[in-house]
Specification:
It is a single chain. The strands form two sheets. Strands 6, 7, 8, 9, 10 and 11 form a six-stranded mixed sheet that branches. The protein has a five-stranded parallel sheet with strand order 3-2-1-4-5, sandwiched between helices. By secondary structure, it is α/β, with parallel strands linked by helices. The chain is about 45% helix and about 15% strand.
């Protein structure tokens, strides 16, 4: 039997373009994209996978990623330091408004082109961001396809009955606040955000005492923590009719293509509430 490694090597050489055998693709090196923005990672893997040189370390972290880990780990990750990024000589750096000014200044001194993306709070803003990024990486058609999938998911949402008051935990005791993208998706799915009644102006921790004093109809969380077990016991003793469901952690972090599975999950949960 032939050595499998020899077969794989032969196949690898066979699929390389003529004149490029075993050598780095010069055009890819010159046109490379580096992302230090985990939400941009999820978009770029669809918009420009062939140009993506490195992604954010957050996308390799099960607690922070919006991507399936096997997909994210196909790409190298950086911690987002200026030194790491500059060493890759990318044609474009996609970052966020949380990037330190000193790091952005270092990019400028190195002559790197930088695109700074914020955190959209509405579906329309997220779709606008997709267009901006798609145009920046010369993939407008792929951007339109991504937006079309989001619009189709929105159009497929069935009519629901009266909104179900829901508290959505992002992790631990941190609850999703009002006027966020997740808040907009909750409303679209027929869920109202209990954070408003609790007086939250933004995403913030919610104490068990607050929940016990005025339980919501539904609680969504990404995990069954010790705090969640204690909360269940307290609410059960009070005779509260609060129901609970899992909303995966990978769906709480970003917009873009994550909107589709996040909305589908919220709609599926809402259907089960009589």
């Amino acid at each position: 039997m032939r050595d499998r490694r020899g077969i794989y090597a032969a196949l690898s050489l066979a699929i390389l373009p003529a004149g490029c055998a075993a050598a780095p693709d010069a055009r890819r090196m010159r046109d490379g994209i580096v992302s230090t923005n985990p939400c941009a990672d999820a978009m770029l893997i669809e918009l420009a996978p062939e140009r993506l040189r490195a992604i954010s370390a957050y996308s390799h972290d099960p607690r922070a990623t919006s991507l399936p880990l096997p997909v994210a780990r196909r790409y190298p990750a950086t911690a987002g330091t200026a030194e790491e990024v500059i060493a890759l000589h990318p044609a474009l750096v996609v970052t966020s408004r949380f990037t330190p000014l000193a790091t952005q200044a270092a990019y400028a001194r190195a002559g790197l082109k930088v695109l700074v993306l914020d955190s959209p709070t509405t579906v329309a803003a997220s779709e606008a961001q997709i267009r901006v990024l798609a145009n920046a990486v010369d993939a407008p058609a792929r951007g339109r396809d991504m937006i079309a999938r989001i619009d189709a998911a929105l159009a497929a949402v069935p009519r629901a009955g009266p909104p179900v008051e829901t508290l959505l935990f992002l992790g631990g005791t941190l609850a999703n606040g009002p006027d966020t993208l997740l808040d907009a998706l909750m409303r679209r799915a027929g869920l109202s955000n209990a954070a408003r009644r609790y007086g939250l102006a933004y995403s913030a921790p919610v104490a068990l005492e607050t929940i016990a004093a005025a339980p919501p109809r539904l609680i969504l969380s990404p995990e069954r923590s010790r705090g969640a077990v204690l909360r269940d016991k307290v609410l059960a003793r009070m005779g509260a009719r609060t129901r609970e469901a899992v909303f995966p952690r990978a769906l709480v972090n970003c917009g873009g293509p994550t909107i589709v599975p996040a909305l589908e999950r919220l709609v599926a949960i809402r259907r089960r509430i009589a």
